[in-house]
Write a structure and sequence with these properties.
Chain B: Keywords: Aminoacyl-tRNA synthetase, ATP-binding, Cytoplasm, Ligase, Magnesium, Metal-binding, Nucleotide-binding, Protein biosynthesis, RNA-binding, tRNA-binding. The structure holds 2 protein chains of 2 kinds. By secondary structure, chain A is an alpha+beta fold. Helices cover 42% and strands 19% of the residues of chain A. Chain A folds into 2 domains: 1-91, no CATH class; 109-340, Bira Bifunctional Protein, Domain 2 (BirA Bifunctional Protein, domain 2, 2-Layer Sandwich), CATH 3.30.930. Chain A has helices at 2-18, 22-33, 38-44, 53-90, 109-123, 137-140, 172-182, 224-239, 292-297, 314-322, 329-332, 335-338, and strands at 127-128, 134-136, 165-167, 188-197, 209-219, 245-252, 255-264, 281-290, 306-312. In chain A, strands 1-4-5-9-8-7-6 form a 7-stranded mixed beta sheet, with helices on both faces. A two-stranded antiparallel sheet of chain A has the order 2-3. Chain B is 25% helix and 29% strand. Chain B is built from 21 helices and 42 strands. In chain B, strand 20 and strand 21 form a beta hairpin.
Chain lengths: 344, 816
């Protein structure tokens, strides 16, 4: 009987080794291990064995069953694995096809620049002040030390609505309005971003509508050196830690002393390039110490308080920063232009 | 102001400093110089030659064969085509090997068989600016002065070695509209001396008094504080000397004749405009400075008849106007070739008066530019004397004794008190008293320390811009060097910065919309009057504010809505095949009810949206669908939800002008008092308007932001997460098509009571099965109790209430 079992084992293993599909494997399982299978058949003869032989043969029979079952199990696993692999192969995607993007809009490039500037100054303890775009002659000019018929009014061509009302040509009127609101209290630390308007024929570098950001600080002992320190900190945050500033004396009716500020060219880092006309410097800011007449108009005593003011053009900064060649793009709404700035 | 360095070096030494270095130093001290202009545009080996003889070319009618002594040892034979060449002339001769502007090189040549050893040049060939040449020198060869020395390089004869610094002056530095001012500035920068001509010493007068020939009076003293004149007789009109012409041309002024050139020369020298009248053309001989009378006219030098207005200041001869004071002289009393006797004027006119006249007439002259900015009262008489002495010298004029004048020079030097301590405190510097006084010395400001730490600074009259101590501080700072001022941090308590609530909300709007796929635009605030009124809903009753002098009709009024601009932008993009747009703009619109403004218009902060085309891009795995009303409305709902206002907003079907009447709504905000406030409109653009603009379906919205600033709720309160399960029930009802979903939901909320946690429409359809004028609305309801699990009975009871409410209110039929 032992021989029979061994023969059965040999036969089953031989057949199982040749199995190539699940169906045959299942058939063989029934054939050898099923209720009417070959192993059961052999074991039916157990009753004829002696009491000593029975456990021995039982042991052999279990071994044979175990071997066959093990083989079937491992075969089955192999088949399953192969099947899975085949399925995964079939599920393969072309990873080079485009995905479904999240929809992404974009902030206008001017507002990107303005927000960046605002954030820097907020970090330095400033507030943002705003005012009307239609201004009175008083706030736009007179309170800023620009009386009627002053030759310096030629510096800005103005859109008038009536004799007394006009489109603001600068955001400086917000400075006066802020001073009035503060009623002589210090410190004043504001920046004033906003649209301004000047009669100017539009071309690649001029627009009758553009933006300005001005800053104003008033305190008890504000020095011109503080102005330099403030601007240096700002430009280094805005354009990088190696940026330097250079002040050149200039004239604005509302500041004295006044200065134009050159900043290390952000393109070439100061070595000279086309953008900075090979000077290494870009003129992007105007500034000065607040004129005593302006302080007085705003309700501050120039013998007690002093201050500084500065101004810059986000349009120009954005043009330099992004290499834009025509200011009119900002206001044309062409999405092919605008979408270029819709990212970090 | 174009400053000739050759001229400048008469007054201040420019040794050891190149024009370029000087330009940089002047720029760094406050007057910008963009460029140094070289008058020599590439000339070499061109010298003065003497035309000894001129013969006709044997084979060419238009050519001459000249024998020229150019100081080269032997005479040169030169073929010349100019009509005006003649024997006895001194002319510029380009020698063989000479270079001319434009890279032309002169070689030995044969012209129609005759050898030519050089070229006789015209002014143009020498690279001189045509417009600045005297008329007689514009054509043909350039005929030089008789006393020009043979063989001298032409560059030195014509001042072509000169380099010009173009001073780009700020309005305060009108002192540098003169060579004298430029000299003081440069001397201060370089720390060198200034030496100026001394007209009083140079001038020689005859005994016959001017006052027995002319008189002057000022009838409008508020417009003219000082008027001075000299009487000069027997002048001979001729070209002015070449050196003077060179300097005028260097300054951009065209030489005319010796008298006019001298007045211009002295104006450039002193910054004081002068005028020479032909004295014999002044009928009365009695100059009166007065305002124009109604209806008066004057033909000015340029030949134009000017209608005069009563605010314009005139020079009259006692009978008729002879000049527009400070702006332009009259044609009739102009100095001409036949002029013999002249009245020379030097005056101080009020800047504002001159400015007003010159602007109104559109007539800006070298003179008016200077008067506008207030001339130096201390230069009126020196300039007059200087010009008189030059006329005596170069025009053979006889200067009669004395100055005839009215008014007086207000030429006292101001004294400004400066605290030394304030100076350093203001700048953040630690300058010593010696350094400060040295700088004032360089400026030729006399500074005396009268008391401890107090300087009394005397400011010359030429620096009218300096009136306050801060002006002196600026002078010190700019000459000390702005770069030498330290950089410091502001002292005192630090202040926290931040955004106001409206500013924070605007930033949030920008964040929300850009993250949701919308592109921000910025459009123009000016628009066409017809476009301004297309979407009047939010600014009803407003009259568009008009600009008084617009640049064009398209941009002549202030916008009352941004939607017309957004439509323009949509058209612009559609023309570039960019059809799928989701645009937003945050900006101001202008509201006024006045035809003619007396107060500022209201400026309303508005969010505007435009949506058109398809949702998403056509792609291998996505077919885009057209956007519709609900894409737009959904965006607004998201916004209001974001601002904590979800429950406070109502949408009401409406027909605002400019919108599709069936696809538009007004948006209301219910404020704390339960009032409904109109805050916006949304919907499809009216199909006729769409068609007119060549656009497909476009959806737009505009929302007033102030109500959102006022009511936005940033207060987030945590709500406990549900611990008990919810029961979900769906319901589908058939109602009249006219019944709004909003009303159904409102009734459901009311009927279901507190157990209803959420309710949502999930399907709407119409169809013939439902019958004419009917629609089916499917709604899902979620019931939940926060403290326990709801029993089936409770849910059924609540739900039953909902169903019967719908049946009662809307005659709804329940669909099974």
């Amino acid at each position: 009987m032992k021989e029979k079992l061994e023969a059965l084992r040999q036969e089953a293993i031989a057949q199982l080794n040749d199995v190539a599909d699940v169906q045959t494997l299942n058939d063989l399982r029934v054939k050898y291990l099923g209720k009417k299978g070959a192993l059961t058949e052999v074991l039916r003869g157990m009753g004829a064995l002696s009491a000593e032989e029975r456990p021995l043969i039982g042991q052999v029979a279990n071994d044979v069953r175990g071997a066959i079952e093990g083989l079937i199990e491992s075969k089955q696993q192999a088949f399953q694995k192969a099947e899975t692999e085949q399925r995964l192969q079939a599920e393969k995607v072309d990873v080079t096809l485009p995905g479904r993007k999240m929809t992404q809009g974009g902030t206008h490039p001017l507002n990107k620049v303005i927000q960046e500037i605002e954030e820097i100054f907020i970090g330095m303890g400033y507030h943002i002040a705003e005012g009307p775009e239609v201004e009175t002659d008083y706030y736009n000019f007179e309170a800023l030390n620009l009386p009627k018929n002053h030759p310096a009014r030629d510096m800005q061509d103005t859109f008038y609505i009536t004799e007394e009302l006009l489109m603001r040509t600068q955001t400086s009127p917000v400075q006066i309005r802020t001073m009035e609101r503060m009623e002589g209290k210090v410190p004043v630390k504001i920046i004033c971003p906003g649209k301004v308007y000047r009669r100017d024929d539009d071309d690649a570098t001029h627009s009758f509508q553009f933006y300005q950001i001005e800053g104003l600080v008033i305190g008890e002992n504000i020095r011109m050196s503080d102005l330099k320190g403030t601007l240096l900190q700002f430009v280094q945050e805005m354009f990088g830690p190696n940026t330097q500033i250079r002040l050149r004396p200039s004239f604005f009716p509302f500041t004295e002393p006044s200065a134009e500020v050159d900043v290390t060219c952000a393109r070439c880092g100061g070595s000279g390039c086309r953008v900075c006309k090979h000077t290494g410097w870009l003129e992007i800011l105007g500034c000065g110490m607040v004129h005593p007449e302006v302080l007085r108009k705003g309700g501050y005593d120039p013998e007690v308080h002093s201050g500084f003011a500065f101004g810059m053009g986000p349009d120009r900064i954005a043009m330099l920063k992004y290499g834009i060649d025509d200011i009119r793009h900002f206001y044309g709404g062409d999405v092919a232009f605008l979408k270029q700035f819709a990212r970090m | 102001m174009k400053v000739s360095t050759e001229w400048l070096s008469d007054y201040v030494s420019l040794e050891n400093v190149t024009a370029e270095e000087l330009a940089e130093q002047i720029t760094r001290a406050g007057i910008e110089i963009d460029e140094v202009e070289h008058r020599n545009h590439g000339i070499s080996k061109v010298v003065v030659g003497y035309v000894k003889s001129k013969e006709k070319h044997p084979d060419a009618d238009k050519l001459n064969v000249c024998v020229v002594d150019a100081g080269q040892g032997e005479d040169l034979q030169i073929v010349c085509g100019a009509k005006n060449v003649d024997a006895g002339q001194k002319v510029p001769v380009a020698l063989v090997g000479a270079q001319l502007p434009g890279g032309l090189e002169i070689k030995k040549a044969k012209l129609r068989g005759v050898a030519s050893q050089g070229m006789i040049c015209s002014a143009k060939e020498l690279g001189m600016n045509d417009k600045l040449l005297p008329k007689e020198q514009q054509e043909g060869i350039f005929v030089l002065e008789e006393n020009a020395e043979i063989g001298t390089p032409i560059t030195s004869v014509l001042g072509l070695d000169d380099k010009i610094l173009d001073f780009d002056l700020t309005p305060n530095r009108s002192d540098c509209l003169s060579m004298r001012g430029a000299a003081y500035e440069v001397a201060a920068i370089l720390g060198r001396d200034v030496k100026l001509p001394d007209p009083e010493r140079e001038l020689v007068e005859v005994a016959d008094a001017a006052s027995s020939h002319i008189s002057v009076q000022i009838s409008s003293p508020e417009h003219c504080s000082h008027y001075t004149a000299r009487y000069i007789t027997g002048v001979k009109i001729a070209p002015s000397p070449q050196w003077m012409q060179n300097r005028l041309m260097a300054a951009g002024v065209r030489p005319i004749n010796n008298i006019v050139d001298i007045t211009n020369y002295v104006m450039l020298e002193y910054g004081q405009p002068l005028h020479a009248f032909d004295a014999d053309r002044l009928t009365g001989g009695a100059v009166d400075v007065r305002l124009a009378r109604e209806g008066e006219t004057l033909v000015t030098l340029d030949g134009q008849e000017r209608k005069l207005e009563p605010h314009m200041l005139l020079i009259t001869d006692g009978v008729k106007p002879v000049g527009l004071a400070g702006v332009m002289g009259g044609l009739d009393s102009e100095v001409t070739d036949s002029t013999v006797n002249i009245l020379l004027e030097s005056a101080k006119f009020d800047g504002g008066t001159i400015r007003k006249t010159s602007r109104q007439l559109g007539l800006r002259s070298e003179a008016s530019q200077r008067f506008e900015k207030e001339v130096d009262p201390g230069a009126v008489i020196p300039a007059l004397n200087r010009a008189a002495s030059l006329i005596a010298r170069y025009c053979a004029g006889t200067v009669h004794k004395g100055i005839v004048e009215a008014g007086a020079a207000q030429a006292e030097e101001k004294v400004i008190v400066l605290s030394f301590d304030k100076l350093n405190r203001f700048l953040g510097t630690e300058l010593s008293m010696l350094e400060v006084k040295t700088i004032f010395g360089r400026l030729h400001f006399h500074a005396a320390d009268t008391a401890q730490g107090i300087l009394e600074v005397q400011v010359p009259t030429r620096r009218g811009d300096i009136t306050k101590d801060v002006d002196l501080i600026e002078e010190i700072a700019r000459l000390y060097g702005y770069d030498n001022i330290p950089t410091t941090a502001i002292e005192g308590p630090t202040t926290p910065g931040g955004y106001t609530k409206p500013q924070a909300i605007r930033r949030e709007i920008r964040r929300l919309f850009t993250h949701g796929g919308w592109q921000e635009v910025i459009s123009y605030s000016f628009t066409h009057p017809e476009l301004a009124v297309l979407f009047p809903a939010l600014t009803e009753g407003s009259v568009p504010v008009k600009l008084s002098m617009p640049m064009s009709e398209e941009r002549s009024v202030l916008r009352t809505s941004m939607l017309p601009q957004l439509l323009d932008i949509a058209v612009h993009n559609a023309n570039r095949k960019q059809y799928d747009l989701a645009l937003f703009e945050v900006g101001n619109v202008f509201f006024s009810q006045e035809e003619t403004l007396t107060v500022q218009p209201k400026e309303l902060n508005v969010l505007s949206l435009l949506l058109c085309g398809s949702r998403g891009q056509k792609q291998w795995n996505h077919s885009p669908e057209k956007v519709d009303f609900f894409d737009l409305k959904g965006a607004l709902e998201t916004l209001f939800g974001d601002l904590g206002l979800e429950g406070a907003i109502r949408y009401v079907a409406n027909q605002p002008a400019g919108y599709h009447p069936g696809r538009s709504a007004s948006v209301y905000l219910i404020n704390g008092g339960g009032e409904q406030v109109l805050i916006g409109t949304l919907g499809q653009v009216h199909p006729e308007l769409q068609q007119e603009r060549g656009l497909g379906d476009v959806y737009v919205a505009e929302i007033l932001l102030q109500p959102l600033y006022d009511h936005a709720d940033f207060d987030i309160r945590y709500q406990e997460l549900p611990r008990f399960p919810a029961s979900e029930r769906d319901i589908a009802v058939v109602v009249d098509s006219a019944v709004e979903a909003g009303s159904l939901l409102e009734s459901i909320r009311e009927a279901a009571g507190e157990l209803l946690q959420n309710v949502q429409v999930f399907d709407v359809f119409t169809g013939s099965k439902l019958g004419e004028g009917k629609k089916s609305v499917a709604i899902s309801l979620v019931y939940r109790h926060n403290e326990r699990t709801l029993t089936d009975e409770e849910v059924t009871a609540a739900h039953g209430g909902v169903v019967s409410a719908l049946e009662q209110k809307f005659q709804a039929e329940l669909r099974k």
